[in-house]
Amino acid sequence: PAEKILIHSEKPLFANSEGQVLLGGLSDLVYSAAESNKDKKIFYSVTDRGPNGKEKGGKKTPERAFLHPAYNPQILKFEFKNKRVELVQSIGLKVKVTLKPEPILITGLPNVNPLSNKTGADETPTDSKGTVLNFDAIGLDPEGLALDEQKNFWVSEEYGPSLLKVNSAGVVQKRWLPKGSSTERTGIQELPSFYAKRKLNRGFEALVFTPQKTLLVFLQSGVPHLDKDLAPILEFDPVQEKTVGVYFYSLSKEGGKIGAATLGLDGRIWVLEQNGKVGKKAWQRVFAIDRTPATNVVKEALASEDFKIPPKTKPVEKNEVLNLTEKGLQDFEKLEGLSVDPEGFIYVVNDNDFGVHDSEVRAQNYLFVIKKEEGKK
Description:
This protein is mainly β.
């Protein structure tokens, strides 16, 4: 079974007059080879939009309570040494605003009011007492993280859904959105327009650099009007700043939700897929994917606002490499970070939703370590 190591943090992630937010909401995991050595391993993670209540209201007027509305999503740096994982740095996401000398902190509040009837609208944010809060045009719900060779971070998030380039100090350099996005969202409209029609809270989930130095960005699940069983994969060239690929990943009948992606031990892209259930009903797998036999429909996707998946479109090939449920992770419904190191260890982190909804076990943040011989090639 996987070794389960509690992640420690000496201080809260965020504090203001309303209280404090403890470590939580871990939404990805990236191994930093440049900063690691034989004595210690360095990982980065990113938090999502902060502690939330459950969704309320109907389909047309969804609402969600933000328990700490000012919470600032953060990139976190962890040190793994002597069987202990410690938070050593947190980098708040920020944005430069005209006429302000210093960048301002980004919130996790939604961008687009559902009452505006715009495509891809978000939920109405309220505080814990139900008072409606302001929308935030640059508010983010980060889920994916990648690190480039120039020490920039790349972040994918659910609202737009959007892709962001962020410098090492946490300042957003650019945000790319689907074409035709509401002007209530701030960013550059470059991505295929069908992404704006993603299901609520099922935006960009996983993000990874390919060996060719492009980015693959995975939607968590299918787009309802296209095919709910095919999760789109966006390929983005970070140098040209252009969409260069659109592929599809066939979701398993037992699974249905993508949680994370990484460059695997075999040089292929590995994708973590799960069903969001716990205990005996849990289903958590890692698949290696191959884009070579798949159909790239980028031209069609960029050409039309009414894009439909062309007939005979082949999804990426997928082969199971690891069963995480068999490794003892069945008590965790949200596995949202996957990484490997050069020695062949596999690492997974859970998203504890900041401990808001869960039992004692799931309210903690863990790093799961799986030995190399346990992963199938």
